[in-house]
Specification:
Layout: H1 2-7, H2 10-21, H3 23-34, H4 51-58
Length: 66
């Protein structure tokens, strides 16, 4: 129940706004860690971003499972 109350709080809304402000940086960081060689061994996980994760960043919301 506390989780639902937090989701309706101004703090949750501010967090969603901060995440949307970093929209381009999220994709850059994802590519760096999951699609490019990782130093020092150069291991490449080659994991493309799932469409659900990608779309959640395109349309951030402060709603939970709605």
């Amino acid at each position: 129940m506390d989780d639902i109350l937090w989701l309706a709080s101004p703090a949750c809304t501010q967090l969603a706004q901060r995440i949307s402000a970093c929209y381009g940086e999220i994709f850059t960081l994802y590519k760096k860690w999951f699609q490019l060689p990782i130093p020092p061994k150069g291991t490449n996980l080659n994991v493309p971003m799932n469409f659900l994760l990608r779309d959640s960043f395109k349309a951030p919301s402060d709603r939970f499972f709605n």
